[in-house]
Amino acid sequence: MSTATSASQQQDPGGLQRGTNFGWSLGMVLRRWHEYVEVALQELPHASRGYHILAVVVHEDVPTQSALATRLVIDRSVMTYLIDDLEAAGLIERQRDPRDRRARRIVATELGRQALAAAEERVAHAEDQVLRGLPEEQRGLFRDAVERAAEHIVAATPETDPCLAVARVFPQPEVTPGL
After folding, report:
1. How many CA atoms within 13 Å lie on the side-chain side of 174?
2. Domain boundaries, the chain
3. What is the rounded distance in angstroms from the CA atom of residue 130 to the CA atom of residue 109?
4. How far apart are CA 41 and CA 178, in angstroms?
5. C-beta separation of 54 from 112 below 8 A
């Protein structure tokens, strides 16, 4: 038996053999990402949840509050409280949908757009900290590869709900009205 170890079988700092525990590696990256991003977003109402809502409202065309809840896999009654708090902070507003007066569209305010731009910079910095173990040129490759893998999973199985898997690992506290 050779004493030489291939690069893919070297011991990692956690004592595991590299190449043998992909799930553990992903879990560690996700856990650290969540920790850093929650700190980076603590100024936003509901931190990462508020950030994801703002990002979808600004960058995507989600027509209604109900569709936003579906898109982000957030219970509709919880979404109401989240939207209330973002609206109270002046980051979004509810507008009547001109096609359906019963429906409300969620629209970012100028303050909301500015807050999202600042939050996106903080998230990018947090992600760089999470990935600081990789050479800088590999960080973009890692992000691209993970995005392609996720897009492939969603395309192959659109019913897959990645948010539920994350929620099981990082349960969110229940939202209480007025908090």
Report:
1. 3
2. 22-169
3. 31
4. 19
5. yes
Q: Return the amino acid letter for 179.
A: L
Distances (CA, A) of 136 to 129, 131, 142, 163: 11, 8, 10, 28
The string of pLDDT tens digits covering residues 70-123 is 888 888 899 999 999 999 999 999 988 888 888 888 999 999 999 999 999 999
Contacts 24+ apart (CB under 8 A), 30-33: 30/166, 30/169, 31/169, 31/170, 32/130, 33/126, 33/127, 33/130
- The count of other CB atoms within 10 Å of the CB of residue 143 is 12
- Here the tokens at position 11 are 């011991």
User: Residue 16: how many CA atoms within 13 Å on its side-chain side?
Assistant: 10
As a whole number of angstroms, the distance between CA 77 and CA 56 comes to 18
The CATH fold of domain 22-169: Arc Repressor Mutant, subunit A (1.10.10)
Residue with tokens 């429906």: 103
pTM for this one?
0.73
The owner of tokens 């539920």 is 164
> What is the dihedral angle through the alpha carbons of 67, 32, 25, 54, rounded to the nearest 10 degrees?
20
